[in-house]
Amino acid sequence: MSADGLITTHPDGCPRCWWPGLDPFYVAYHDTEWGVPEYDSRALYEKLILDGFQAGLSWITILRRRDGFRRAFQNFEPERVARFTEDDIERLMGDTGIIRNRAKIRGTVSGARAWLAIEEGGPGFSDFLWDFCDGRPIQTNPRSRADIATETEISRKMSKALKQKGFTFVGPTIVHAFMQAVGMVNDHLVGCHRHAACAALGEAPRP
């Protein structure tokens, strides 16, 4: 693994961003999910919630428990999560398949209710989020970790809007990480084999 935040050439000959190291599980996430534009409202809710759970932890910790989170939160179907009761919250506090943080569990439920309000009141959760970057992925063309922001003016605006809607654990840094993951920002390093691929996906017609 590159310690200097530069491109790492893997044993398969592929150049990649430094952060997944050589962990096959993490590399697969880097190669197939991170930076790919996501427009599905439910999937965006799931990723935003999981990024909130990451606060104070590493992303790989959350990623390895993603199946547990999906089971615990009804596959992150907001309509179902919004109906969770105090009994459900207590039950989840005993679930070893997730991160047992009461405030974050409550935030998942309040976030589901906020998601429903946005969906029902328009313009829909996906459009609500993507409008912050004018509906198209932002291409940053970073060449090293030093070129990658931890938050931006856009992530600060999105963070503020999400909080106003009722979401929690959506500070500007968490929101920027979310934007990177769902392809609103293409922060794959120039030279990484996924940089050009994700840039091309960003230019493709929106589904």
Defining traits:
single chain; 207 residues; mainly alpha; Endonuclease III, domain 1; two-stranded antiparallel sheet; two-stranded parallel ribbon; 11 helices; 4 strands; globular
Head-to-tail CA distance between termini:
36 Å
- What fraction of residues sit in β-strands? under 5%
Task: Count every beta strand, where a strand is a DSSP E run of 2 or more residues.
Answer: 4
Residue runs with pLDDT of under 50 for 5 or more positions: none
| Helix/sheet category | mainly alpha
GO molecular function: DNA-3-methyladenine glycosylase activity; metal ion binding
Organism: Methylorubrum salsuginis
Binding site for Zn(2+): 17, 30, 188, 192
Keywords: Metal-binding, Zinc
SSE topology sketch:
Layout (H helix, E strand, L loop, with lengths): L7 E2 L5 E2 L7 H9 L8 H14 L4 H6 L1 H7 L5 H4 L4 H7 L9 H20 L3 H6 L7 E2 L13 H13 L6 H10 L3 E2 L8 H9 L4
Parallel strand pairs: 3-4
Antiparallel strand pairs: 1-2
Helix pairs in contact: 2-7, 2-10, 9-10
Tell me about this structure.
This is DNA-3-methyladenine glycosylase I. GO terms for molecular function: DNA-3-methyladenine glycosylase activity; metal ion binding. Zn(2+) binds at residues 17, 30, 188, 192. InterPro entries: Adenine_glyco (IPR005019), DNA-3mA_glycosylase (IPR052891), DNA_glycosylase (IPR011257), Tag (IPR004597). The chain has eleven helices and four strands, in the order E-E-H-H-H-H-H-H-H-H-E-H-H-E-H. The chain is mostly helical and 207 residues long. The protein has a single domain (8-202), classed as Endonuclease III, domain 1 (Orthogonal Bundle), CATH 1.10.340. It has a two-stranded antiparallel ribbon. Strands 3-4 form a two-stranded parallel ribbon. Strand 1 and strand 2 (15-16) form a beta hairpin. It is globular, with a radius of gyration of 17 Å. The N and C termini lie far apart (36 Å).
